[in-house]
Amino acid sequence: MGDAKIAIIGAGLSGLVAAWQLDQQGRKDWRLFEARDRIGGRILSPEVLSPTREHPQAQPANRLDLGPSWFWPEFQPQLAQLVQALGLQAYPQYASGDLLLERSSTAPAQRFPNMPQVPESMRLLGGMAALTEALQARIGTDRLQLRTPISRLTLDSRHAKIRLEALDARGASVVIAEVDQVLLAIPPRLIADTLQFQPDLPPALQATWHQTETWMAPHAKYFAVYAEPFWRAQGLSGEARSAVGPLNEIHDASIPDGPAALFGFFALPAATRAALSESELRALCRAQLARLFGAKAQSPLQELYQDWAQETFTATSTDRSASGEHPNPAPMMVDTGLWQHRLLALASECSPSTPGYLAGAVEAALLAVQPALS
Q: Is pTM beyond 0.85 here?
């Protein structure tokens, strides 16, 4: 990887879009480094069990999104165009039927007609990982290096090259690459809290990046997979809001022509979740779904649980007590000091219009690639 001029750190959606765009412009002198043993970052869509079907080979992959799930083409045209360009198929979030509202542990949930979604929330067949996998297929793997958590960036004394360093098994610093420019496709708070810079970043920028909340970092999701969406026969949409918990927002996550599923976001804060075992959390979720949707919900075929607050390459200790709201846009560029024009941040949190959303990752990547091409 000695011929690289541009290093992209982070193979989530923004890093993959940046790599693809550079490729599209004829630039082959980039390298993509990812700390995890997989691509995708906060996009994580594992396969789930499937009931027997007549023509399984004709069906999309049965995967559920433990990270972001939705996009809105009317409001997010860049992402919609990317989905179309990659030949992916979208489908609307199921929302027909009544919504359940659970106000108290001493009273049954109330039913209300579900409001039409305007605009519709859309999902991808094969999960959002279909998006990142399609991008990887187009850029190939020759310039992608997994299991490489960069720990330090050093600008040499001549200000000609940036050394990317990682720690080896003994804790010693090893130079991974020397490049002219670095695109930081990881959340701003991770940049500020986990990367070392020599010379230091401008203090005001360091502080701003540290203060920028990382979307998904304090959240956890639970899925229950079933053979059929039995709640629909009851006239229910699968959507629920609860003041009781442990899940405060629940949706139908069933896959067209595939397994049925319900999923929810945890109301329990990260510290409370950490004090309970995963089996205890799952039991609490099953009990809540049975309260809301009936006894059949108590016995899922499969359960999935993902706590992003425990993900080293997503959350810092500060994120675990964060509000969980979408952040204000973080600065993309270093506009003063020796790092000026050499570093660009392009995670979703840096998007001017949709920070924290999938569409924000696409927007930030497209904006960052323009200076890199100049």
A: yes
